[in-house]
Specification:
The chain has 297 residues and is of the alpha+beta class. 21% of the residues lie in helices and 30% in strands. It is built from six helices and 15 strands. The strands form three sheets. An eight-stranded mixed β-sheet has the order 9-10-11-12-13-8-14-15. Strand 11 and strand 12 form a beta hairpin. It is globular, with a radius of gyration of 19 Å.
Length: 297
């Protein structure tokens, strides 16, 4: 992101920018992950797209807010201008800059004293499943995988709510209702699909929904937005199986990457991402092969 310009404001005072409300109402996930209060002070930053100063994209820097991953840390983020009408078209490029989507917000951690969050992606052509991942694929060979439209349904929300209640109790998201479910996962401008994992029905019975991988489709690759599954079937390893299926999906479509969001050094729940080899990491300037000794420090 060498094209980021100088932080300025109309008055010439760099602290004079007031970050506008980024969403029309409170969204628990957004508050927890992107900003504790989206009306706090922040900076506006101008980024020239492809070096054209007449085609600038504004970035906003949030104020400090409680970190969603470490209770003893504070965080802040860079957020692409949510009111920019070009956001859908720019999103694939933003993924290559290490950004991520949450609802209609496209953000990237930008913490002053912590670099633990590292954007990672899988280079599809080079990926080779290890023995454990091959066993996971075999264990779930009885499942049907369907790509469906990203629309809210009662059965999807029921599974999402069960997952949050069992896996992330008191984590700030387990009180989500249908509105928060839709606002978090289904963007108004993104090309999003639900990859459903189902146990086939027998003797006239309908198939059983076991898991859903919310996936954004772009010309640069697939972005794994969020995956939730039936906690009664945790032994299947549906999170790993979902990524393996997303890799195969990307391969069929000739897409070069599967973006996994952020690997976070020292965070057990995010450590599974480095088990996919090879893995590429973004250091703020370029993508490189993941280095477990250096990345996130």
């Amino acid at each position: 992101m060498g094209c980021v310009g100088v932080i300025t404001s109309p008055s010439g005072d760099n602290n004079a920018w007031t970050l506008p409300r980024l969403t029309p109402g409170p969204v628990p996930f957004i508050r927890r992950t992107v900003a504790a209060n989206a009306t706090g002070w922040g900076y506006a930053v101008c980024m020239a797209i492809h070096g054209d100063r007449d085609d600038e994209l504004r970035l906003f820097q949030t104020g400090e807010h409680p970190c969603g991953y470490w209770s003893d840390r504070v965080a802040r983020d860079l957020v692409l201008d949510p009111h920019d009408r070009r956001l859908g078209g720019l999103y694939p490029l933003a993924l290559s800059w290490g950004f991520r989507r949450s609802g209609d917000l496209v953000y990237r951690p930008h913490c002053a004293h912590c670099q633990a969050c590292v954007a990672v992606r899988i280079p599809v052509a080079r990926f080779a499943a290890d023995r454990s991942q091959r066993r996971c694929a075999a264990r779930n060979a009885d499942l049907e995988v369907r790509i469906t439209a990203a629309t809210a349904r009662d059965d999807l929300f029921a599974l999402y709510h069960r997952y949050l209640t069992h896996r992330h109790a008191n984590g700030g998201m387990d009180d989500h209702g249908p509105h928060e479910f839709e606002q978090f996962l289904i963007g108004s401008w993104s090309h999003t699909r639900f990859m459903e994992m189902r146990l086939p029905g027998h003797d006239g019975q309908p198939s059983q929904l076991l898991g859903v991988a919310v996936t954004d489709v772009t010309e640069h690759g697939l972005s794994a937005v969020y995956t939730f599954f039936d906690p009664d079937h945790a032994a299947r390893g549906l999170g790993t199986f979902a990524i393996l299926q997303q890799i195969e999906w990307a391969r069929r479509e000739g897409l070069p990457h599967v973006y996994l969001g952020y690997w976070i050094r020292g965070h057990q729940k995010m450590d599974y991402k480095r088990r996919f080899h090879p893995l590429e990491a973004y250091d703020g300037r370029r993508w490189h092969d993941f280095d477990n000794d250096l990345d996130g420090r």
